[in-house]
Amino acid sequence: MSMNYIFHLGRDAELSTLEVISYLERIGKDYKIKKITKKALLLDIEKLDHSETIKNLGGTIKISLELPDPETAIENKIFSFIIKRINYGINSLESSEKSLQELTSLIKTFCKKQKIKALHKHVKEREIPPSKSKSLDLELTLFKNKVYAVIASSDPKSYAKRDEKRPYFDPLKVISVRLAKILINLAQPKKKDILLDPFAGLGTILQEAALMNIDALGSDNNSLTVKKCNANIQWIKNTFKIKKIPRIILSDISQISKKVRFANCIATEPYLGPFIKKLPTELEAREIVKDVSRLYENFLRNASRMLKQGSKMAVIVPSYKTRDGKSIKIGFQTMLRNHRFKIYQPLKNTMIPLDYALKGSKIQRKIYILEKLK
Prior knowledge:
By secondary structure, the chain is α/β, with parallel strands linked by helices. The chain has twelve helices and 17 strands. The chain folds into two domains: about 150 residues, Alpha-Beta Plaits (2-Layer Sandwich), CATH 3.30.70; about 220 residues, Rossmann fold.
């Protein structure tokens, strides 16, 4: 039996939408797109393991399930409470004030019947942050004036723990847990696939892949970084009791295909150039581009050797804004043609690449999804 699910989208709505679609493709779940907005993705899906899904998605804030008979569902829920006071909240997405008032009145009526005191929390927030959802006994969503029950919320505190509690963490050198999950899902690793991160660094992508029960392999060209990454992997293994332990090897990107003969997909953020405190001159930007272009050429050449036809790759590509407002690029799309890759477009109305803004960064980033040609 199929049901209507709302995926509450994060700050990068297009990217979050692509991630959900890619995730469903990778787990082999049939779906039908019913509505895409700036805040929500409405899908008709066969029964979904929502707890597992929310853990595996980086760009989804919450998941809500449509209530075909809202009055009965809400009444049954309230009548099941044995407490004398409940906190409830309502996410209102593209719905009228009248619908919100009617839903609030319905909840109060049922609570009065049950002699329960009902407190409407976070009234001023159209969408309740996941950190506040945990304090609610009942959380609903109004979307296009239809009623849904919130069935899963993300846990940003657990992301912070995985980042900051591991043995080695450098906010200037690691990607976020959220972005790591997104890149993994965009690369669409299937069951028993091997996911490769050839610029593993301190291992954020590797650890998130392991927590998603994906076989993962990483490499880095710095022996000290490899040592630190291994320490982080051991911490993840011991802390979360993961079954699939990622491997990390020492390798320069120009030699990686000699050490790793095969991978099913790649998710990575390569080296994007030196840390930039202020916008460079055009001459400085072009010097950076020279070095970074060579690295991306080596990366794509070796990736082409390791991946088979149809394999997916999610990769971040930089460009550099100069003091006079120019944008200096590395010529990535020309490289793609030279190394037998094409841009993969999961959705017709969302064009890859997508911009990905990182607060405080002077480097411009785009996220590409690629498919290996013959």
